[in-house]
Amino acid sequence: MKHKVSLVVLLFVCTLLSAGNLQKVVGLSDSVYDKMDELYVSSGLALPSTTRPWNMDEVQFLLSRIDAGFLDSGNRLLYDSIASLIDDDPFCFIMTVSLSPEFYLHTNASSFSSSDDWYINYEKRAPFASMKFDFSLTDHFYGLLQFPEYRVNKTESDGSQPGFSNVFASNFNWLHNKKSTLTTDFPVRGFGAFGGKGWFAQIGREQLSWGPSESGNFLIDSHLLYHNMFRLSAYGKVMKYTFLTSFFSSPAEIKADDGLLGPIKMFMAHRFEWRIWDKVGIALTEGVMYQPQNNVLDLRILNPFGFYHNYYIINEANSIAQLELDYTPFSHWNFYGSWAVDEIRFLWTEKADSPTVHPDGMGFLLGTKCAYPESHGVWKGSFEWTYTTPYFYLRSVDPDKNQTGDYDNLNYVVASRRWVNGKLVYDQNYMGSPYGGDAIVFQLVGEYASHASWEAEARLLYVVHGEKARSGTSSYWKVGPDAYGEHTPTGGWNKAIRTAMLGLSGSKSWGNNWKVYGEMDVFHVANKNHEEGNTQWDVQWNVGFLFQISTPK
User: Fold this and answer.
1) I need a surface site. Which of 77, 347, 429, 451 has the fewest CB within 10 A?
2) Over the stretch 370-419, which tens digit does the pLDDT of each residue have?
3) Parallel, antiparallel, or unpaired: how do β-strands 168-170 and 190-196 relate?
4) Which domains are present in the chain?
């Protein structure tokens, strides 16, 4: 009897309190982002907000800026498909179970043996199985928990990566691939969010993306599976503001390797976006990586409207800034660019021949994307060029001295903390572009997305990378004229790793429950491992299936 009463009370509360779910945060893998970009560009507008993910209220707000009465048939189909995703029906609790077996095969396992050697790397591979719980209490609160997950580890306790070094592998570890263990690093997405009309806040674990890039954003890129973060966003017709804090394992914690959460490493940023004259978008972001030496979070740091470059705590903080512009001069074509500054020499304060002159740390990106909707689907494409200087993302605790130890850094390389076979493993990645500093990247993508739920894509990628890396002695910060005079690619073209890739991929969906997808990537790498004359080929295949089912609302 008590159980029946409890169920009736729960249903009553859900019905009474749940007036909608506009605070639902839409994951970055959702199709709404591509569709909204395509609708805006094909309608002759600047890109919608590139501070993502959005919640449903913001999706509704962005769609309201489009006058549906003036759309042609192709754009109208896009508009209607986005509108159908905005579900403001009340719900209290939804459970979704997903099963997604994936299989991987490649021809050169001896030379392509790590996640970095694959286009479909660890971060792009799906968990074999997962459960997701969505719940809401009133129309102002939304929660999500993606737990548990059946996902194999990226790196084993001995440093090996069997999911990438084997000729044949999968995203589960029975029948084959038995050396892979299961990760306990979940949930990847798990958070609470609350807000109202034109604003929301979110706290927990979430995947983030800031910027328009298709190959990798400089400050925050979606190749990181999650941030342990808090963020607050407010948006209107002309402007959007976002404040973010995100916490990572510090170099001292990684060095100690004692199972304890170590000293603080926090990234904090505020971001302003403006949409001017409908066709022009501007975004200005300032951030700081903060590592207090006494491991005490000074509350004076936590200023959503501060100027982080003026904190004058050079041994505890490393600031960064980025300017983004995008312009849609006419329907269907958008042009965009980004300039990120991690370190720059001011001519009036520092001479190039000074023994303590800092090397410049900057990133430059230029790109264009197009979208042509028609009655059966959308033709779209993009082209990008990226250039990063050798010391972009890198810095030591004392920026006026050469770095001498692996853990004496204050940089934008961040670590995911995983427990593997009784040992902690820290997988390190750049917080921004996955290619890091000391890189030149060209990427050309063409795609067709059918309204009949199938897609096909072709991708050309060319990457030149110098000797700088995200860990080890190649990541050490240096000062002086020699360091200032280094140019991308360091070590010269004869030793630079030059990677060319042709990728073909496609997928087919049946409703929201079934999907099959696959990809083939052909790699040609010159000077593999910076060894002059070491040329390697690899052909990589990936095939996957998705089945998911949700409880009714």
Assistant:
1) 347
2) 999 998 999 999 999 999 999 999 999 999 999 999 999 999 999 988 88
3) unpaired
4) 2-550 (2.40.160.130)
